[in-house]
Design brief:
It is built from five helices and five strands, in the order H-E-E-H-E-H-E-E-H-H. The longest helix has 44 residues. It is of the alpha+beta class and 178 residues long.
């Protein structure tokens, strides 16, 4: 029996190259996904003329965090914030899974759970517009526009713009496969 050290090292080299190629492809997809989200949130904030547009990404069963934000001023940053544990439950998740769009012109006048109002106040939110990002396997995230400096009327075209942006994100290959 002969041992061919060269062929074993060649196979190991090929496996290492394949692993590096897969890693590089994942990194490229991640960069492309992040750039699309960044462009989308920036454009929405400018078009809607609001203080903040964020992507709230679900990394677990109704657990998530703000992973992207576009801000009119650094003081409005909530990057990394997580939702209120006891407020976002299966009931709310079910509504967003069904395509719910939630537009609140003034959180102080809108009927809502007190924990939700307190949570929005803690984020300096006075008005918000929430649209789900639905991919084939379910609720991937929420696209959220916040106005912090006062009430904000959300027009039908504002809602359609947010829906179109959420649909663009939901159909992007880099998001669907993430």
């Amino acid at each position: 029996m002969q041992i061919h050290p060269h062929s074993e090292s060649h196979q190991s080299h090929d496996r290492r190259e394949q692993g590096l190629e897969k890693l590089l492809a994942r990194l490229v997809r991640s960069i492309q996904r992040d750039e699309l989200v960044r462009e989308t949130t920036n454009q929405l904030r400018e078009l809607l003329q609001v203080d903040r547009v964020v992507l709230y990404y679900f990394y677990g069963q109704w657990q998530g965090q703000v992973t992207f934000e576009s801000l009119s001023s650094p003081e409005f940053s909530i990057l990394g914030s997580t939702g209120p544990d006891n407020c976002f439950n299966n009931e709310y998740a079910g509504l967003y899974l069904a395509g719910r769009i939630r537009a609140i012109a003034d959180i102080e006048l809108e009927p809502m759970e007190s924990c939700h109002r307190d949570f929005l106040r803690s984020l300096q939110v006075r008005a918000n517009l929430v649209v789900p990002i639905l991919i084939p396997r379910g609720l991937w995230g929420l696209l959220v526009a916040h106005h912090c400096q006062g009430p904000h009327h959300w027009s039908q075209s504002n809602m359609e713009m947010m829906q179109a942006a959420a649909q663009t994100l939901a159909t992007d290959r880099n998001i669907v496969e993430s």
